[in-house]
Amino acid sequence: MNTISFTRFQPMDYACKEAMNTLCANLSFVGAGIKKIMVTSCHSSEGKTFLSMNMMRTLAELSKKVVLVDADLRCSSIASQYGLRIRNAQGAGLSHYLAGMCEAEDILYETNIDYAYIVPMRHEVSNSLSLLNTPCLSRLLNWLANQFDVVLVDAPPVGVIIDAAEIARSCDATLMVVSYNKVRRRELNECRMQIERAGCKVIGTVLNNVSPDYFRSKRYDLFDS
Asked: Residue 215 pLDDT more than 60?
């Protein structure tokens, strides 16, 4: 199998780690049929990639076999933020698979975290919607769901481009990341309705970037929607 390493995965402080443990534990109550979970936000820079990566790590630490799919085809930040090092520099990624250039097995990478795997994006594309608007993504996620306990999909912000709504069609549920005091209620409701129109249930929101002056516990919470 292909291998990949994270060279800049920063440790979490105690409060963040406990909050992430709580969030991942709460995911066990959403139902056995929900395995393909899209993580998105209304705007960019709200912390969706941070959440996706640390959920992957936390679930793996809980001995859950988990795979993260980097589906932000236009502007992924995983490689730059977390220092992805791929043994095969020419290795394929999600964009190659969606373009019909390789098989699903070619884009699944084992990471340097036990129980954690990733499908990297590899190369940004400008025609992302045309690649996503095919049966390929759904086939890939279903294939992964048969092999893993949890499939996390790091998607673009739903309020920025239409890609997230298209990705939602192939997922069982969505987790919304909301940056404190940045998103208006109307914007959040519009994003939620857009996802639900795609046939994907929004299972909750994660409140991020909360000042400890307002919430001393600094928790990430999964709320009923």
From this structure: no
Cβ–Cβ contacts within 10 Å for residue 204, how many? 18
| Whole-prediction pTM | 0.90
Region of 45 (left: φ > 0; alpha: ψ -120 to 50; beta: rest) is left
Whether 3 and 109 have beta carbons less than 8 Å apart is answered as yes
Per cent of the chain over pLDDT 90 is: 67
**Mean pLDDT rounded to a whole number for the chain:** 89
The CATH code belonging to domain 2-208 is: 3.40.50.300
Q: What is the pLDDT of residue 107?
A: 96
- Tell me whether residue 162 is exposed, middle or buried, using C-beta atoms within 10 angstroms of its C-beta: 0 to 12, 13 to 18, 19 or more: middle
**Residue 83, token pair as written in the block:** 């220092």
How large is the average pLDDT for residues 88-112? 91
For residues 225 and 205, the answer to whether their CB atoms sit within 8 Å is: yes
- Give mean pLDDT, residues 210-217: 60
Provide the residue ranges of all domains of the chain, joining segments of one domain with +: 2-208
Residue 161 buriedness (CB in 10 A; 0-12 / 13-18 / 19+):
middle
- Quote the CA–CA distance of 215 and 209 in Å, as a whole number: 11
